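Section 5: illustrative case.
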């Protein structure tokens, strides 16, 4: 109670010091019901000056009166009010402050602010999973009669939302070959509400020219959502290329150590306030404060991990490309990738995912996967541990055979998520498995 009293005094004191109020509070962006007590780091001067590596460590950090160095974990479902009048004021937006963690939480807010800063965006909204982010970004902005154009090379669950769920609500969905600008042009010759794409795509690493598709989409009146999971904010910045919304599965590289599920939607303040926030508030895909805390720590090392993983992935791709037991390697960093020039133009590195065909169908793919000793069989990706998966029987198992064939997801294709192990050890493990 003593501490609670001091905290209340501290809040009142802090509120009297405009220079130390967070940008969020100072701007009165109370829609997330968020009170941010002392913002040591996100002053306008600092966040404008800092590079992404610094933002990933200090961005969005709000310290409590205890002066903790690591970000505080506010593991609470609800918040208290000193008086009934305060509750009434907070619920009617007359007072800034948290009410309930489904609507906002200080630890989650730190994660959102840090991610938005890293992305060069005004806003980020955290969600419980990547799929919750994908679903909310689509559902919040669509209504019956709308039209969506999407790339056909997508993560299986994204494909399900687009091709199974949305049509049930009277939304017309058209899938195109994302690599083909003429196909986008034809599909976007009619008024369209939203465009959804993923680049590089899962699992065949097809690329999409974000800038060109955004220009066509905007001319058709559409908002563009980019699933940037494979590239991460370190290697690709879709908002700078014209996208309106970026979605993440934070489960992947942002956590990066295979511990927690999470997701995020990155956009403008106006879009979050008007379109997203009412949907998130009432449907409840909120990120747990504990997971947000893990993700905050993940962001601190994101750049180091992703750059190391990309370097290792390129070395492994070259090694597999030379290997006599491998039929084909797909990696945007290889000159043999048909869209290598686009990767050079659009990305700041080629990412931690590669795919390769081993010949001999599913039987040989399974045999090789089962022979690996260091690389683990798992459908997750972006982990510190290298992981291998067989898309046909796991992540893309839902697709019809002809759909898989069109996408090049053959029975002998395996996807490798490159971790942080020593490249020599990974080469040795892959080599011994391929020779089995
Ligand atoms: C490209 C892509 N988008 C979205 C998701 C969904 O993320 P989550 O598993 O966190 O819901 C995944 C998951 O594998 C993915 O690979």
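Designed sequence:
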């Amino acid at each position: 109670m003593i501490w609670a009293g001091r905290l209340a005094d501290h809040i009142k004191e802090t509120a009297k010091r405009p220079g130390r109020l967070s940008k969020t509070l100072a701007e009165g962006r109370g829609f997330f019901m968020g009170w941010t007590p002392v913002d040591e780091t996100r002053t306008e001067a600092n966040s404008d000056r800092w590079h992404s590596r610094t933002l990933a460590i200090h961005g969005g950090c709000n310290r409590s009166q205890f002066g903790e160095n690591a970000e505080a974990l506010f593991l609470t479902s609800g918040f208290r009010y000193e008086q009934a009048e305060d509750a009434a004021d907070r619920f009617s937006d007359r007072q800034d402050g948290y009410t309930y963690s489904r609507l906002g939480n200080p630890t989650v807010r730190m994660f959102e602010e840090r991610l938005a800063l890293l992305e060069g965006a005004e806003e980020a909204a955290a969600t419980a999973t990547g799929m919750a982010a994908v679903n909310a970004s689509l559902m919040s902005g669509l209504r019956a009669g709308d039209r969506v154009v999407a790339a056909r090379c997508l993560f299986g669950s994204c494909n399900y939302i687009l091709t199974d769920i949305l049509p049930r609500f009277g939304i017309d969905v058209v899938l195109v070959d994302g690599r083909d600008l003429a196909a986008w042009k034809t599909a976007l010759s009619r008024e369209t509400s939203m465009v959804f794409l993923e680049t590089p795509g899962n699992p065949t690493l097809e690329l999409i020219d974000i800038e060109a598709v955004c220009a066509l989409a905007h001319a058709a009146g559409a908002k563009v959502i980019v699933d940037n999971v494979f590239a991460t904010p370190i290697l690709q910045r879709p908002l700078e290329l014209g996208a309106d919304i970026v979605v993440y599965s934070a489960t992947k590289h942002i956590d990066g150590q295979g511990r927690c599920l999470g997701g995020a939607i990155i956009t403008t303040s106006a879009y979050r306030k008007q379109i997203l926030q009412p949907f998130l508030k009432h449907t409840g895909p909120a990120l747990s404060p504990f997971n947000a805390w893990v993700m905050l720590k993940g962001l601190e090392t994101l750049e180091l991990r992703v750059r190391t993983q990309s370097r290792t992935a390129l070395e492994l791709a070259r090694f597999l490309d030379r290997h006599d037991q491998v039929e084909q390697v797909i990696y945007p960093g290889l000159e043999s990738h048909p869209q290598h020039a686009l990767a050079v133009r659009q990305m700041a590195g080629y990412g931690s995912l590669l795919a390769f065909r081993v010949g001999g169908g599913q039987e040989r793919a399974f045999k090789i996967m089962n022979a690996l000793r260091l690389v683990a069989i798992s459908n997750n990706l972006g982990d510190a541990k290298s992981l291998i998966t067989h898309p046909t029987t796991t992540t893309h198992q839902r697709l019809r055979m002809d759909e898989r064939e069109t996408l090049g997801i053959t029975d002998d294709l395996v996807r490798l998520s490159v971790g942080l192990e020593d490249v020599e050890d990974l080469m040795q493990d892959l080599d011994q498995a391929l020779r089995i």
